[in-house]
TrEMBL record:
Subunit: Homotetramer.
EC number: 4.1.1.31
Descriptive protein name: Phosphoenolpyruvate carboxylase
Annotated catalytic residues: 146, 553
Annotated gene: ppc
Keywords annotated in UniProt: Carbon dioxide fixation, Lyase, Magnesium
Length: 889
């Protein structure tokens, strides 16, 4: 019997649905126990009516709405919680199938590294070249906090335990008793989840967010990194006969949590100091656990001459060294505990693990001794895992980036130059600024007077720079300048670092994030690299950050994507001309409207030459959990990133044809006009947006440490990209991820370019990825639900705008289906389509209930505020829709 791909997919769907049904049954039993049969029957009735409503049954829809609007206050919270938790359990089932059935973000496939090595070494790439590239890969994944990461850490741990149970259930050799124990454990975990408050009582602090990031490493990545490298080594050895270096680290991790102060007044120098200490503390604690285990393992006596001499011929030389490391790690933890508690203890640094070499050198000595003495098998066990963790995480766990807005730096110099009687730095032109900055950068005398008393905002910027100066370079990543646009923005930061005593050359990275900044990026970097002093400072390396969120919010996804692509091409050319190695830092979000989507496809759709073995990418909030929250899932994600960067470097995509470029330029111009025509020029747009979405209510939720707006008094232009996307995903219109694209594609069709578009979709990875992402958001958009929000919440004189937006959405769907020659959206990604289909009957009731609760809260007055039940239920519906939509912000 021949098993087809369709058969495999059918089996997968059946297995996925079986687990979803089983977990849902347990959740139902939990609700029945605590809320009774009648409540559970009502939940099940609404679920079935939602399913029928999906099939077009208008009577079922009306009956469902009647039941929802009639829910008494005391049932609002448990009802919202029921559907919310079912969606979380559905996510878990899908995550489990991702790791148990070898699926990537779109469809089930074999191991991506193994596939790539087979293709490369089949005559396409020289083996030596491939190995050299693999050994020097530099993939830096930057973990960032995310205001739309709803789930609390305590719940995330319980979700992970459920996946462990699902994994155990797959074992065919389990006895009946063992199956009963697993079933009991699942019931216990789901009951614990049901009785745990899902919503944070208070907004998390930046330190809380940093601790959340560390928990992902401790619970998942700490185990995944050596597992992935072991698998990678086995695959390379099988294909080439060679082993990878023991200190290989193709993927490393940085963080913005506790370092990103752009628009977040709660991230101060004091907070950053605590986060740096906590990062080191976490690393020391995890290394200590490993060393304790290694002391138990390395009981052998035979050693090489170096180790014998080092330990004075100890009868247990390996344990002798490890016990010393163990004590130094314990002392390091005690020292860091005192610092975290606010003390500044005097300490002999030689007694601590102070530098990476303090840990690396003795462990490498043990490794060499074991291999010299014929014990390579032992050396390549836990000891090798520790060395590879050290290569990846260092002793600081995460390299902390610092991010600040360009205006905050120039304000420091403006206040200083006014104090010194030199005029106002902010009023000088670019030439004057550069001349002043270069003169001071080369000047040996201090610029900042010791008796100067700066304002609080200026003092905070200087304190951050002094903090950077105190910490070793390996504890820190890049200094990212938001809203950068001119060479002086970079030189200003370099001067501030010099004046505060920073002796190590920190990477200072301009972030180009609006359409005009992206278009000007190459000119800015050209001017920078033309400065002799700056060229000397870079030592042949230049990092540039590309902003996806704000550029898409500024110009729409299509125009922003083309500006990002074009900017990267130009930056590659500029740096190549200057003989400088370029590292591009991609500031992607989780949602399509913020540059999100499958990482593998995104990397392979970059301009040829833009990756070149080096890349930095942000990973945000909920996507950190979805990609790295479980060890096996993290191994797959690491494999996807490694294979994509290796392929983009050695088998880059072709240069786009000139006619493709010309067509894309026309599309970009059409799309930005259509997008801004609504978002900027439509006088009713802001009023409609705030009425038709829970944007105002989102700002009140305790979701993240950062305010929703950069300026409290600002309008839509000051709203951050994350709540902008999040609000539109809640009412299911998904507007930021498609507005302008369909209109531009339709205009191209009317010019007779459909054949050209189809050629671009077939042959140009950049364009095919854009169309694929459009399909995904079109499939997730629900115009009928958006219309219901409008009916219930929006004044009638604004309804015309909603009708216009839904017509634009319908236009986009039709033109994409025509372009792809498909009858349905996501026909080529059935796994994703099935995922959306599975969730809809559970998301829909939450959306309908959310509109009812928004209507109630908006009617509240000082005398009759909305009840606590209504407020909490509203938060739960927002959390539930976010869980169902997955990539929400």
């Amino acid at each position: 019997m021949v098993v087809t791909k369709a058969d495999n997919m059918t089996d997968m769907y059946a297995s996925l649905r079986s687990n979803v049904s089983m977990l849902g049954q347990i959740l139902g039993d939990t609700m029945r126990t605590h809320l009774g049969d009648s409540f559970l029957e009502k939940v099940e009735q609404i679920r079935k009516l939602a399913k029928d409503s999906r099939r077009g049954d208008q009577a079922a829809r009306e009956q469902m709405l009647e039941l929802l609007t009639a829910l008494p206050d005391e049932e609002l919270v448990p009802f919202a919680k029921a559907f919310n938790q079912f969606l979380n359990l559905a996510n878990l089932s899908e995550q489990f199938h991702t790791i148990s059935r070898n699926c990537d973000e779109l469809v089930c496939v074999p191991d991506p590294v193994e596939q790539l090595l087979g293709r490369m070494l089949n005559g396409r790439v020289d083996q030596t070249k491939m190995l050299d590239c693999l050994k020097t890969l530099d993939i830096d994944l930057v973990l960032t906090a995310h205001p739309t990461e709803i789930s609390r850490r305590t719940l995330i741990q319980k979700y992970a335990a459920i996946v462990d149970c699902l994994t155990e259930q797959e074992n065919d050799q389990l006895s009946d008793r063992e199956r009963q124990q697993i079933s009991l454990r699942l019931r216990q975990l789901i009951a614990q989840i049901w009785h745990t408050n899902e919503i944070r009582r208070e907004r998390p602090t930046p330190v809380d967010e940093a601790r959340w990031g560390l928990s992902t490493i401790e619970e998942s990545l700490w185990h995944a990194v050596p597992d992935f490298l072991r698998q990678l080594n086995d695959q390379v050895q099988q294909r080439t006969g060679q082993q990878l270096p023991i200190d290989i680290a193709p993927v490393r991790f940085s963080s913005w949590m506790g370092g990103d102060r752009d628009g977040n007044p709660f991230v101060t120098a004091k907070v950053t100091q605590e986060v740096l200490d906590r990062n080191r503390h976490a690393a020391a604690r995890l290394f200590l656990k490993d060393i304790v285990l290694l002391v138990g393992e390395l009981s052998m006596e035979e050693a090489n001459d170096e180790l014998k001499a080092y330990t004075n011929n100890s009868c247990e030389p390996y344990r002798h060294v490890l016990r010393s490391i163990r004590q130094r790690l314990r002392d390091t933890i005690d020292y860091l505990n005192a610092r975290i508690e606010g003390h500044n203890p005097e300490v002999d640094k030689s007694s601590l693990i102070w530098q990476e070499s303090d840990l690396k050198a003795p462990l490498e000595m043990l490794y060499k001794s074991l291999t010299d003495c014929g014990m390579r098998l032992i050396a390549n066990g836990l000891l090798l895992d520790i060395l590879r963790r050290l290569a990846c995480f260092g002793i600081h766990m995460l390299r902390l980036d610092i991010r600040q807005d360009a205006s905050r730096h120039s304000d420091v110099l403006a206040e200083l130059t006014r104090y010194l009687g030199m005029g106002d730095f902010n009023h000088w032109d670019e030439t004057e600024k550069q001349a002043f900055l270069l003169r001071e950068l080369s000047n040996r005398r201090p610029l900042i007077p010791s008796n100067w008393q700066p304002s609080a905002d200026v003092a905070e910027v200087l304190n951050t720079c002094r903090l950077i100066a105190k910490h070793p370079a390996k504890a820190l990543g890049s200094y990212v300048i938001s809203m950068a646009g001119k060479p002086s923005d970079v030189l200003t930061v370099l001067l501030l670092l010099k004046e505060t005593g920073c002796s190590h050359p920190m990477r200072v990275v301009p972030l180009f994030e609006t359409l005009s900044d992206l278009n000007n990026a190459a000119a800015c970097i050209t001017d920078l690299l033309d400065i002799d002093w700056y060229r000397g400072y870079t030592k042949g390396m230049q990092e540039v950050m590309i902003g996806y969120s704000d550029s898409a919010k500024d110009a729409g996804v299509m125009a922003a994507a083309w500006a990002q692509y074009h900017a990267q091409e130009q930056l590659v050319a500029v740096c190549k001309q200057a003989g400088v190695k370029l590292t591009l830092f991609h500031g992607r979000g989780g949602s399509i409207g913020r540059g999100g989507g499958p990482a593998h496809k995104a990397i392979l759709s970059q301009p040829p030459g833009s990756v070149d073995g080096r890349i930095r990418v942000t990973e945000q909030g909920e996507m950190i959990r979805f990609k790295f929250g479980l060890p096996k899932l993290a191994v797959q994600s690491l494999a996807l990133y490694t294979s994509a960067v290796l392929e983009a470097t050695l088998l880059p995509p072709p240069e786009p044809k000139q006619e493709w470029r010309d067509c894309m330029q026309r599309i970009a111009e059409e799309s930005v006009g259509a997008y801004r025509g609504i978002v900027r020029d439509e006088p009713d747009f802001v009023a409609y947006f705030r009425a038709a979405t829970p944007e105002v209510e989102l700002g009140k939720l305790p979701l993240g440490s950062r305010p929703a707006k950069r300026r409290v008094d600002g309008g839509i232009e000051s709203l951050r990209a994350i709540p902008w996307i999040f609000a539109w995903s809640q009412n299911r219109l998904m507007l930021p991820a498609w507005l302008g694209a369909g209109e531009a594609l339709q205009a191209a069709c009317e010019r007779g370019e459909m054949g050209l578009l189809q050629e671009m979709e077939r042959e140009w990875p950049f364009f095919s990825t854009r169309i694929s992402m459009l399909e995904m958001v079109y499939a997730k958009a629900e115009p009928n639900l958006a219309r219901y929000y409008e009916t219930c919440l929006v004044p009638k004189d604004l309804h015309h705008l909603g009708e216009t937006l839904r017509q634009r959405l319908d236009l986009g769907i039709k033109v994409v289906l025509e372009l792809t020659k498909s009858d349905s959206l996501m026909a080529h990604t059935p796994w994703n389509r099935e995922s959306v289909k599975l969730r809809n009957p559970y998301i829909d009731p939450l959306n309908f209930l959310q509109t009812e609760l928004l209507a109630r809260t908006r009617k509240e007055t000082t005398e009759t505020p909305a009840s606590e039940h209504v407020q909490l239920a509203l938060m739960l519906t927002i959390a539930g829709v976010a869980a169902g939509m997955r990539n929400t912000g």
